[in-house]
Amino acid sequence: MKLKIENITHQYKDFYALKNVNCELSPGIYGLLGPNGAGKSTLMRILVDVIAPTKGRVVYNNHEISTLGSRYRDLLGYLPQNFVGYRHFTAEEFLNYVANLKGLDKQSAQIQVKQLLELVGLADVKRKKLRGFSGGMTRRVGIAQALLNDPDILILDEPTAGLDPSERIRLRGILSKLAKNKIIILSTHIVSDIEYVADEVLLLKDGEFIEKAPPNQLLDQLNNQVWQVQIADNQLAMFSAKYAISNVHQQGANIEIRLISQEKPSPSAINVEPRMEDLYVSYFGTQENSASFHNV
User: Fold this and answer.
1) In which order are the strands placed within the sheet that holds 208-213?
2) Reduced 3-state DSSP string for the chain
3) What is the pLDDT of residues 247-296, one digit of tens each?
4) Residue 28 — left, alpha, or beta (φ > 0 → left; ψ -120 to 50 → alpha)?
5) Quick one: which of 5, 43, 62, 266 has the fewest CB in 10 Å?
6) In angstroms, rounded to a whole number, what is the distance separating the alpha carbons of residues 99 and 145?
7) Pairing mode, if any, of strands 208-213 and 3-12?
8) In what order do the strands lie in the sheet containing 3-12?
């Protein structure tokens, strides 16, 4: 199974969301990582054939997806970033409705819906209407609907948004089991989730892929460049201006920071093992909200 992204460019008026993107994917989990505006959502919408690229093409097993039409969509599972479902449906009703849209017969739908509700931990609230669900519960319904019909290609845009730590761990386990025979593309701002579950990381910046490699290979680039330093409150501005800082933690009268530097930034600095948050900051800076960094 191969999914090829060939010379994809996408233009919105005078703005290029994607610029000559090339990539080849086979079964496994790919973490799509980049700052806001990098082109992640545009790329995902092209991959699910919601929009057509301005230039280039997506090829699945030697067939351009635009020529496959419904046959390609039958192979897809997709969770959009803004998934809400139909709020007047129960979880069970909604999944049966999606199963019908995907062409499942009634018996297969009943079996799959039951299994998926158990898989995402919603079997006990299957008859509760979606309007009464929390954000995390709604997200789990979205994950379940993406898995209906056992798709070959699973594209998930912010799947762990709103999930608590135990739910995120459950999802990572589900994806790891599925990855043996599926192409899974996972976009998230919770970068530690990518570190734990992705076979390869796709770094996207300004509409272009800048790296494609396993997480450990990318993290090796930062060996001996990540430091932990305790500083006074009034030193934070100076360190922030000079270094890329991946974490700030108040400790009594002082502040403990993690930063990236090729040289020891302070006599008291301690060299520490790189994490994906450090990698993110080294490539993309700290222009994004601090909610981008989670350690669970």
Assistant:
1) 76-79, 153-157, 183-187, 28-33, 200-205, 208-213
2) CCEEEEEEEEEECCEEEEEEEEEEECCEEEEEECCCCCCHHHHHHHHCCCCCCCEEEEEECCEEHHHHCHHHHCCEEEECCCCCCCCCCEHHHHHHHHHHHCCCCHHHHHHHHHHHHHHCCCHHHCCCEHHHCCHHHHHHHHHHHHHCCCCCEEEEECCCCCCCHHHHHHHHHHHHHHCCCCEEEEECCCHHHHHHHCCEEEEEECCEEEEEECHHHHHHCCCCCEEEEEEEHHHHHHHHHHCEEEEEEEECCEEEEEEECCCCCCCCCEECCCCHHHHHHHHHCCCCCHHHCCCC
3) 999 988 889 999 999 999 999 999 999 999 999 999 998 754 333 333 33
4) left
5) 62
6) 8
7) unpaired
8) 15-25, 3-12, 55-60, 63-64
Rounded distance, CA 62 to CA 158, Å? 29
Instruction: Determine how many CB atoms are found less than 10 A away from the CB of residue 23.
Output: 17
- Spatial CA neighbour of 43 closest among 19, 74, 27: 19
Look at strands 55-60 and 3-12 and give their pairing: antiparallel
**Residue reference for tokens 């097993």:** 61
In whole angstroms, how far apart are CA 176 and each of 109, 139, 148, 235?
24, 18, 17, 43
The predicted model scores a pTM of 0.89
Distance (Å, whole) CA 22 – CA 149:
29
pLDDT tens column, 38-55: 999 999 999 999 999 999
HSE (CB half, 13 Å, CA atoms) of 172? 20
